[in-house]
Fold this protein.
Amino acid sequence: MRTGLVVLISASLLMAGCSKTEEVKPDDEAGVGLEGGGPGGPKIGKYGAGGGAGKAYGGTGGAYGGSGGAYGAGSGSAGDPALNDPSSPLSKRVIYFGYDSSDVLPEYVSVVNAHAAYLASHPNVTVTLEGHCDERGSPEYNIALGEQRARSIANTMRFQGASDGQMQVVSFGEEKPADSGSGESSWSRNRRVEIVYPGN
Amino acid sequence: MSKAYPIARLIFFLTLLFSAPARAELQVQISQGVEGAIPVAVVPFANQDGLSDPVSKIVSADLQRSGRFRTLADNAMRERPVSPDQVQQAVWQALGQDFVVVGQILPGGGGYEADFHVVDVIRGTLVISYKLPFGRAETRQAAHRIADVIYKAITGEPGAFATRVAYVTVSGEGANRRYNLQVADTDGYNPQSVIASAEPIMSPAWSPDGTKIAYVSFESRTSAVYVQTLATGERRKVSDAPGINGAPAFSPDGSRLALTLSKGGNPDIYVMNLGSGSLNKITDYSGIDTEPNWSRDGRSIVFTSDRGGKPQLYLASASGGQAERLTYDGDYNARGVFSPDGRSLAMVHGKGGDYRIAVMDLASRAVRVLTSGPLDESPGFAPNGSMILYAARRGQLAAVSIDGKVRQSLRIEGGAVREPAWSP
């Protein structure tokens, strides 16, 4: 039985490996592994700015709503080569975070700004910001933390010209790990916000 | 690709091997019992061969699994008494037994009647005689109720064998991931699927009468809270506000549901009147407030908040207002749940990078850590308060007695099991 389990696990890891989209790897462990993140760089407060944050959800019933396909709006962005050029920061869709933190780390600001600029210049495009956490701690607390991470990215993008109606926020907490392993190297890959463009 | 076929065949073979006899998906094992567990012999009941399951065997397994008892194997028994007058005290004393359970199955009105007796073979006294009628399809449930009667007769405390456990299984990876909310007997038998989805299912919570379960489902790619009636499968979407719809908890009278909503811009605790659907906001803080749990009298709600910089437990009136901070020890205290007697609070207690289950005595505020971690979460009390069921690392559940002495592990073949909730 043990052999069977090992086989199953390695088979699934292979599959997960194949379907990976390109990510911004946390390039230094110290930067993402510690609470609070690096010094000096621009930081968005943990709870973001108040005001219109709630409007990020819009009144349209959510990005996934409606019967016309999984993603109702924003079909204009489908297959945009600008989004998928590997040399463009727009091809980077995953932003990583420190432990129990929703602060945007300095090394990810340029990526977030690039997406904000793209949204600002493509007002018909919508994105979903999916917040995620590592497996440590309580599942429902992690849902809240994942949402704060996604809102933190939304707030940054809003300051850069993206509109609330273009960004849908959803948190999956610790429920959908990118890396099913345990330990800091897995955890650092799971504390993330994924910027999801429909059709890309 | 050439290697794929043998692997597929192997998996298929293993599936066959393990699916055929597995009536209990959840494997419940005692991993540590009480030193000085009470020796008890459950003699096979007369006339139980025609039943779907051997009643006395289930009773014996229940008592053994509780960790409070050490049961005697059938083949070690030198006599098979059916009634108390047939029990020869000296025979059982020689086998080192304190108690002997004897009984028989008789035809009854709706099907059968279990007629059983507990004999104290040290003192030579009859502890209890009991008649329990049960229907043809209720054999296992009847056996668990018999185990409850015996447990109470010997220990003085109510048993929790005839209750159920809800949990979420997770199998597959990536696009093949499946989430399944199930309910099973506490010995892992009779698993029933409540809801299955390719998207996460979270936070099952029982109604106080045990007939309904509230849970969070992401089946529409955003969170929503549902209340489902177990007997009929009928379910009602009670909340799908923008943002988080999470952490449902029934009030002790079942009329209200506390839950977490972030429609106001950040996660706050709300109380919903289930009859009218009206909402009352209990907390108002700009950071995280979540994981509400009701005090037994329904007057207060404990919840997790990071208003002090880190997640800690706070207590507020169920109608809102000022919250009192309860926890100071450790840098992470979350998911507070009241014990059935209302005197203590179980929680996830994080300290030095380890997450363990701890219990706080509410009168003294003293915190006792019960588990060894490193990644324990989702604690919940057994309805008799004797054990705490929780989720541990690597997708398995565990249970620990509130004195920390008895430990059980609950695993599932070929998948992870999370978010346990013990029924009332």
Remarks:
- The first helix of chain A runs from residue 2 to 18.
